[in-house]
Amino acid sequence: MSMYVGESLVGEGNEVAHIDLLIGDKSGPVGSAFANALADQKMGHSNLLAVMEPNVAVKPSTVMITKVTIKGAKQAVQMFGPAQKAVADAVSDCVKSGVIPKDQADNLCVVCGVFIHWQAEDDKKIYEYNYAATKESIERAMKNEPSVDDMLAKRDTAAHPFYQG
Q1: Using an 8 Å Cβ cutoff, are 133 and 15 in contact?
Q2: Angle, to 10 degrees, between the axis of helix 123-143 and the axis of helix 84-96?
Q3: Of 46, 55, 98, 121, which is the most exposed, with the fewest CB atoms less than 10 Å away?
Q4: What is the average per-residue pLDDT within 10-23?
Q5: What is the reported pTM?
């Protein structure tokens, strides 16, 4: 398969994490999206590599894209600090546990959409929620979850947290 898709919402309040991600071969559509994300920077949408520490980028190579406009230094530091560390740790832990096959880590790449609320305050929660959401997104993507049957089973009973209609 050339593209895996994952999603997860974890946490509550202004520190809530919502991750959307793609995993795929560097030579396929996810690789193209990865390159475009790094090459097409826009004001308020600074895409960045997931690193465990400076000079130690994760494998598979992972680009984090902002899902909201970054408004000010505080929000930027949250993206480049606890969120970046959380995504990097989750990716590396998924390789360590075998969710992402280690022998494929150099061939794959990840495009990870990250949401940082403009009123988020607690860096520890930002880290915890983004770590859990990224890890769960990767696990779901690699298992192709939810299945079509699971999705259809929830069609008439699903409750969206931001739409009550």
Answers
A1: no
A2: 40
A3: 55
A4: 96
A5: 0.95
Residue 33: what are its φ and ψ, rounded to 5°?
-65, -40
Cα-to-chain-centroid distance, residue 165 = 28
Q: Are 28 and 3 in contact (CB under 8 A)?
A: yes
Residue of 18, 45, 117, 160 with catalytic role = 18
110's tokens: 């990840």
Q: Is 160 considered catalytic here?
A: no
* Tokens read off for 15: 């520190």
Give the strand pairing for 61-66 and 108-114.
parallel
User: What's the whole-number mean pLDDT along residues 143-154?
Assistant: 94
Give all domains of the chain, ordered by start, each with its CATH number.
3-153 (3.30.230.60)
pLDDT for the residue 1: 64
